[in-house]
Amino acid sequence: MRVLLLxxxxxxxxxxxxxxCANCEAVRAGTAPARTQDCLAxxxxxxxxxxxxxxPDIRTQLTSYAALAPLPPRESPxxxxxxTDGELDHTLGLFQLKEAAGxxxxxxxxxxxxxxxxxxxxxxxxxxxxxxEERFELGGLVVTVFPVxxxxxxxxxxxxxxxxxxxxxxxxxxxxxxxxVYAPCVAxxxxxxxxxxAGASCVLLDGSFFAPDEMAGATAGDVGSGAQLAMGHLPxxxxxxxLARIRxxxxxxxxxxxxxxxxxxxxxxxxxxxxxxxxxxxxxxDATELLL
Length: 292
Ligand code: MLT
Ligand code: MN
Ligand code: ZN
Description:
By secondary structure, the chain is of the alpha/beta class. It has 11 helices and 13 strands. Zinc ion binds at residues 16, 19, 21, 23-24, 261.
């Protein structure tokens, strides 16, 4: 299985257009790499590809990789999209995929029922929205779904639809035995998640925040620690943080994605970056390719 990390930043990317924090400024100064918003592509055979989430940067992401280029006259290797959740930063890219004929989009039922792109972009070429089974085949790969939480996107208001609103995926290649877990939106370490990750070649994990109160220090406005908590992203640091939960396993690589521009791990000289490495985790840049 080939895995292309098209984007590794949380909503806003790095730099974020309206942010002049140290991390965003480092990219503007050319001393740190830019990161586009979290999104990846997977393929069993290198000829047909599936997206995991559809970021607002999707057009640039899709046009930057030879593997994702269309064949003449207009035959894209993109076959479908799996959504982990309905957040705008994971679904706005669907609008830009409106040219895609016959796209299949898998999402938790509550997300499939509310995501704005379904009613708008999905009408152009009659996309299919298959029911999200617990386990299904995907172009030679096998997908298993793990319900993560009931965290709704803001636009869904107080929708009474049953969750889960957020899921994680495990994608296995039966031909190689390689497997990937993708969990970019984890509010707390879910019950049963260790088992879901057991034996995976690689886990791509929610790296939004290092500290629980990070956004209060880095941004203006009403984004205090309460609001950060409400965003539903388990911080890396602390006794219950994700770094403490990562199992050092010889067979599993732990990679952080969906990294917010406030996160000090983005600075390689920071003690937070050192703590991440010390825990056995990695911080891959955009365009990292994994062969699993
Ligand atoms: C998130 O990851 O929590 C969302 O992208 C934030 C949001 O846009 O509400
Ligand atoms: Mn996000
Ligand atoms: Zn910033």
